[in-house]
């Protein structure tokens, strides 16, 4: 039996060009899925991002995620809103906000609609620090996509959005009504 037929039986998918790539850990039996490969890519991107942020700025990756979201929320936002935008849990956002406040990059304001959920905002110093880090982050992402055409970038974004939509659906809590 050919390798392609064996691969198809093992993973349920036909072998393709991605299977011919020779990267460490890229081709594993029974894990012949682009989503598995996305986890590999995401892991190394996280590692490089952490290293880059440590070299250029005094912020952690969690703090960067908060800053990147708050910088776009001109009226500020709550921990819950930032967590939803960053696809992380509220505890991670709360911890990052605490250290960002200590550094003078964010501040908390009273929320007139819910006293338990203060409004978080970037300070002028925080926005300055964010912009410096943003320039580096943009250069990093441009470097990663440099070998892709504009059309390929557009296609990649469309495909990632479809997977992202599915992940959002799968991450929703299961209703107890649906179980009955």
Shape: globular
Which runs of at least 5 residues are low in confidence (pLDDT < 50)?
Answer: 1-11
- Strand order of the main beta sheet, please? 1-2
The oligomeric status of these chains comes to single chain
Structure notes:
61% of the residues lie in helices and 4% in strands. The chain contains eight helices and two strands. Helix 3 packs across helix 4, helix 3 (61-70) crosses helix 5 and helix 4 packs across helix 5 (90-102). The radius of gyration is 21 Å and the shape is globular. The protein starts with a helix and ends with a helix. Mean pLDDT is 86; it is low at 1-11.
Relevant terms:
mainly alpha, disordered N terminus, two-stranded antiparallel sheet, 180 residues
Entry summary:
This protein has helices spanning 3-11, 34-56, 61-70, 79-86, 90-102, 124-144, 150-171, 176-179; strands at residues 106-109, 119-122. By secondary structure, the chain is mainly alpha-helical. The protein has a two-stranded antiparallel ribbon.
